[in-house]
Description:
It is built from four helices and 27 strands. By secondary structure, the protein is mainly β.
Amino acid sequence: MGRTRVNLQPIRGRARTRLPALLLGAALLFTTACSGGGGGDSSGSGGDNAGGGAKTGTEASKAVVNVKPDDGAKEVATSGVLKITSTGGKLSTVTVADTKGNAVEGKLSADGASWEPARHLASATEYKVHAVAKDEAGRESAKDTTFTTLTPTNTFVGHYTPEDGSTVGVGMPVSINFTRGITNPEAVEKAITVTSEPAVPIEGHWFGNDRLDFRPENYWAAGTKVTVKLALDGVEGRPGVYGKQTRTVTFTIGRSQVSTVDAAAHTMQVVRDGQVLKDVPITAGAPSTTTYNGQMVISEKYKVTRMNGATVGFGGEYDISDVPHAMRLSQSGTFVHGNYWAPSSTFGSANVSHGCIGLKDVRGAGDSKQPAAWFFEESLIGDVIVVKNSKDKQIAPDNGLNGWNMPWAEWIK
Length: 413
């Protein structure tokens, strides 16, 4: 039986022809997938992307955020350095805060190109900055930095009156005495805010370079709530001397009590909330040591205290160790106080003191029925005593808490 032979050798010529064709097809497929042309335009023009490639929406923002001081800066001044700007766009978000999350208030310029803090920064504090700007296309650019303010070698604080939480009379100003003389009063005053409920205009006035008082134009209304915020930390009060104090103080105005002393008539009329409480016989300053005229505010109260004439320029004329029911009216030594050493007939008829206002009393301050004891118990620190018809000048506004003797127009200069 015959056999048919089959040629099993590979057809090498055809294999060499098909392999390049397969590679070419794959290359065409790859090119089509990456072109982004879509295949909808057989002309090969590339549609809207012709000549420029496809727009992907990932172009960088033209806005650039700049922050001063530089990231990581140390010993940065607390004022005059921090500034955030944008070129090629406008700032849309600016956040500056310390590590406790306390934000720094700031102001954005009208054109949105810059931001600066509204107040000084605290000393020895690390701050974090986050700023975002947008270009005309709405694309954002952001910057985050950190810096630390200086640690001052020399510092100051302000000793304030009245005390936090106290209830005081209608004449009580806010008085702050600084431990160092201030040569940059604008910066220090800007760091202190005094507000009230109900609200009234409240203005500050400097007495010298170490005392700043605040008051309204007229006495406070009874029941007013007053808040004092001291943000002195970081304020450069004088070259190289920085504030080191952040404190909020609140106090309340009690009932209204204003007493008027008529030195010529030897009487004091006590008026509370518009009603006369009592007319009290008094003795004022003798002809050679008269009592100041003017509005005086009670700044201290002592049930018993020592009064030595040598401390106020009267040499050894008197030294009384147990003056009862004494209330200070001036820094120079004017008091309203009890008097147990003068005859009872003196009160209401003669002026015999060294400038103080005396009311009948007993030694030891133990008799609550005495006029001095009654007035002491009915008075608050901050109550007003007005002296008239004395043959003396008006008391100086800075002699005690007595700024009411300065006209409002002069006070606000």
